């Protein structure tokens, strides 16, 4: 179990590790993915250490919903709306999650296929 002290994204939120932060508010922040998979690839995270959707509690609903509102706002700001974009949460190992601090990937600027690989 990763402690909040050691969690990479908690450390980014506390500005202990540098990241290109593009948005922040009281409960969330967004920064550029270090290994972008598309021309726009941002990560939107809660400031609070939430692990994944699996651990989601009823009281986390508005906080997690807010992450999608932030992602949609950033997509609008970056003119991704017309062509479309993808906002995804990888959950657990088989879901492709590698950092266990919940995050929404905002991907845009190219065509994405379905189903994903
Ligand atoms: P996931 O695999 O869904 O858990 O996504 C984790 C994402 O975090 C990956 O897309 C990584 O490229 C990204 N990542 C890992 N370390 C950093 C970092 N220091 N700064 C920004 N993004 C990172
Ligand atoms: Zn964390």
Note down, in words, how this protein is organized.
There is one protein chain. With 117 residues, this protein is an alpha+beta fold. The protein has one domain: HIT family, subunit A, CATH 3.30.428.10. Helices cover 20% and strands 21% of the residues. It has helices at 8-13, 61-77, and strands at residues 21-24, 28-32, 40-46, 85-88, 104-108. A five-stranded antiparallel β-sheet has the order 1-2-3-5-4, covered by helices on one side. The longest helix is centred in the middle third of the chain and has 17 residues, at 61-77. It is globular, with a radius of gyration of 14 Å. The mean pLDDT is 96. Zinc ion binds next to helix 1.
Looking at this protein, list some descriptive labels.
alpha+beta, five-stranded antiparallel beta sheet, binds adenosine monophosphate, binds zinc ion
């Amino acid at each position: 179990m990763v402690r909040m002290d050691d969690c990479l994204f908690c450390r980014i939120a506390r500005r202990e590790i540098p990241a290109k932060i593009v948005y922040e508010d009281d409960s969330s922040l967004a920064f550029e993915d270090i290994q972008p998979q598309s021309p726009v690839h941002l990560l939107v995270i809660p400031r609070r250490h939430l692990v994944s959707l699996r651990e989601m509690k009823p009281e986390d609903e508005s906080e997690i919903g807010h992450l999608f509102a932030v992602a949609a706002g950033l997509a609008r700001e970056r003119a991704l709306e017309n062509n479309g974009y993808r906002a995804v949460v990888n959950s657990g190992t088989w879901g492709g999650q590698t950092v266990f601090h919940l995050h929404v990937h905002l991907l845009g600027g190219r065509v994405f296929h379905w189903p994903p690989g």
